[in-house]
Amino acid sequence: MGKPAFPAGFLWGTSTSAHQVEGGNENNDWSEWEKQPGRIRDGTTSAEACRWWNGSAEEDLATAASLCQNAHRLSVEWSRLEPEPGRWDDAAFARYLRLLAEMRRLGIRAMVTLHHVTLPRWVAARGGWLARDIVSLFARYAEECIRRLGGSVDHWVTINEPASVAGAAYVSRYWPPALGSVRAGLRALGAMLEAHAAAYGAMKRVHPAASVGIVLSTPRFEPARTGSRMDTLICAAQDWVFIGSLLRALRTGTLLPPLAGPARPPGLRRSLDFLGANYYGQYAVRFDPLLHERLFGRHVQEPTVRAGECDWGQISPEGLTRQLVRLSAMEVPLYVTENGIHDAADAIRPAFLTDHVAAVHEAIRRGADVRGYFHWSLLDNFEWAEGWQPRFGLIEVDPVTQKRTLRPSAHLYARICGSNGATASGRERASQGSP
Ligand code: IFM
Predict the structure, then answer these.
(1) Cα 227 to ligand 1 centroid, rounded to whole Å
(2) CA-to-CA distance for 265 and 263, rounded, in angstroms?
(3) Which of 34, 40, 127, 328 has a CA-to-CA distance to 414 between 20 and 30 Å?
(4) Taking Cα atoms as reference points, which of 285, 271, 186, 274 lies closest to residue 230?
(5) What is the band of 434 on the pLDDT scale with cuts at 50, 70, 90?
């Protein structure tokens, strides 16, 4: 291993989300959806997931601690905490408090996300992110969470990947409510930004010193053909809708087209104590006049990170460096809140991991204020419409027997975490069987 290279206090962890790992979530918008034929590619459901709700969370996080991780990003499930409008479930809050206390005991810092894909059934029935009162409902939920859990949480994320949710659930029909409407998607995205701002304000009124941010999906978009003006134009348009317009809105407080909603949502400007970036890869964008629902751009990169129809892009650590350097213009601390690859055999992951950690280091060297790296994921889990087929875990999980098996990358990552990010040498990567 090389010499430790990251700033003191750097967070080294992994990410999960409630519905993907808890099991037994029967009161949100995925509960019925995932049981409908054809919704989940491999026919599986979240079912017991990784049994985190029933005690396995503590065991898995103890494993994470033994692997030198000092942080974990998890989400709380709104449908458990507020199963009916305005009714808070004390037992559910107590369950999360127990988990957070155990994390503290294990020396694991907590980053907690309030909304990670799922909505309570009753919110979905009102229209989800298109509901008339969604902004105040979300702010009320955020306020209750910080009141009850605030003392145990280091960093709060309001919303995970708003543009992915708007795209998959409102523009396309891949996730519920499957509206298939560009207009609905843009309204939903605007509402999520408004809700983020309202939640930020509500949380800061309760705990002014709380660290509150948002997590964006930040793939890199590149024109497929260098020199093609149309590819370049469409690529810039996709980047604007997916990332650029959100960054602009968060920095200036103004929603510019095509985002829909009030021009200046109250409290949006500077509603960030940090920014989280989820990064999986890079898309090569090629102009296609027939693909209007994808802004006339087809993604034509080599399918290095694909499962079924879902493509996480082409592996590009350099893309991560460039995105982090770009995000530093936001002038808030940055966290890589997700980065990973589905690779059941763990053949590609070792090199992926070390190359992306090196890419984060390079971003820091170029001036980006990156304070942590969270690998997606600690363990295999329910990958939404792709079911259990994509295996993102450092720990392999058999969803039937619940048996855990550490993949070689879990040990490799432990060495990275334990040495505060010393870059793995080429020899080590070779011994992990990676290219
Ligand atoms: O599993 C998801 C996660 O819920 C959100 N970000 C991308 C991951 C991998 O697809």
Answers:
(1) 33
(2) 6
(3) 328
(4) 285
(5) very low
Q: Is 386 in the pocket of ligand 1 (CB under 6 A)?
A: no
Whether this model's pTM surpasses 0.85: yes
Question: Which of 22, 48, 338, 362 is flagged as catalytic?
Answer: 338
- Specify whether 338 is catalytic: yes
Give the SS3 label for residue 37.
Answer: coil
Give the type of residue at 228.
S
The reply to whether 32 belongs to the active site is no
Comparing CA positions, the residue from 278, 300, 277, 276 lying closest to residue 288 is: 300
433 confidence band (pLDDT: 50, 70, 90): very low
Q: Is 376 in the pocket of ligand 1 (CB under 6 A)?
A: yes
Query: Do 381 and 345 form a contact (C-beta atoms < 8 A)?
Result: no
Q: Which residue's C-alpha comes closest to atom 2 of ligand 1?
A: 383
Domains along the chain? Answer: 11-218+340-431 (3.20.20.80)
Cα–Cα distance measured from residue 74 to residue 13, given in angstroms and rounded to the nearest whole number: 11
Query: Is the C-beta atom of 383 inside 6 A of ligand 1?
Result: yes
Residue 383 Cα to ligand 1 midpoint, Å, equals: 7
